[in-house]
Specification:
By secondary structure, the chain is of the alpha/beta class. Helix content is about 30%, strand content about 30%.
């Protein structure tokens, strides 16, 4: 199949998983009714909890995770492909994993990816972000096989590491997901250009569902869920309100763009600067 109607859910997650499941499920149903056969959700879609102790207390193992099981059931009911942008998975008493899941229309998890690059930064918005204090980084890049071809999984801060995207594209990914909870400060400065750059460099679609608005502890996220084509053109932009965007992907455009500018296949060996 070369055509895919895909959606990005844009939401404002709270520290309450039950509340988030209810809100996002409504948006998923609406996107499905709008014709989307593949629906994506943002990073930390199940719980955006800024307090470390509370996050560790509320998080669950993958086997018992209420958000994962709820969305598996919903994917099965609606007969859709569903990307859980990420949820907090408890891996020990002191650490979580920021993990993404791709679910098929049978409600089965066909791929999982643990965020590799931890968001340890000071962006000047009054908050200090130290993701590695609570989360354990992943160590493996992941692509998934779908009826539309191979797709790559990344999460948020990974967007600043182009080698990861290049590795996914070289492994055959024609679509790369970048679900996010981008801060408003960095979003205003960098969000659009980073998404477009990764699409252009790799000649692939970038699909980036995002958190939006003001969250617990006055954390602010940028929104602007994006669907970008392999030529770097923005097909849909979610703006600054909750809701969803839908666009049709033509997977044949990937091969066309990569044949026009074959930079993905033209790496050259060189001596690194000393």
């Amino acid at each position: 199949m070369s055509k895919l109607r895909i959606a990005c859910i844009q939401t404002n997650s709270s520290p309450n998983p039950e509340e988030n499941i209810a809100i996002v499920s409504v948006l998923i149903r609406e996107a499905c009714a709008a014709g989307a056969e593949f629906i994506t959700t943002p990073e930390v879609v199940g719980m955006l909890e800024p307090d470390r102790i509370a996050a560790l207390s509320k998080a669950q193992s993958e086997e018992k995770h209420q958000v994962l099981s709820a969305f598996q059931e919903l994917a099965l009911e609606l007969g859709i492909w569903l990307l859980i942008g990420s949820i907090s998975i408890k891996v020990s008493d002191t650490k979580l994993s920021n993990r993404s899941f791709l679910i098929n229309p049978n409600g089965e998890v066909i791929a999982r990816y643990s965020k590799i690059h931890m968001f340890d930064v000071k962006v000047g918005d009054g908050h200090q972000y130290l993701e590695s204090k609570t989360y354990e980084p992943g160590s493996k890049a992941v692509i998934a096989e779908t009826p539309w071809g191979l797709m790559g999984l990344t999460i948020c801060y990974d967007i600043r590491f182009p080698n990861l995207f290049r590795d996914l594209a070289k492994a055959g990914a024609k679509v790369i997901f970048s679900p996010a909870a981008f801060t408003r400060v960095t979003g205003e400065a960098h969000w659009h250009v980073l998404q477009r750059a990764r699409a252009i460099e790799n000649g692939c679609y970038i699909v980036s569902p995002a958190q939006v608005g003001t969250h617990a502890n006055n954390r602010k996220t940028f929104g602007h869920s994006l669907i970008v084509n392999p030529w770097g053109e923005v097909l849909a932009d979610g703006g600054t309100e909750t809701g969803f965007i839908v666009s049709e992907l033509d997977l044949g455009a990937v091969d066309i763009c990569r044949s026009k500018v074959p930079s993905l296949y033209n790496d050259q060996a060189y001596l690194k600067p000393i």
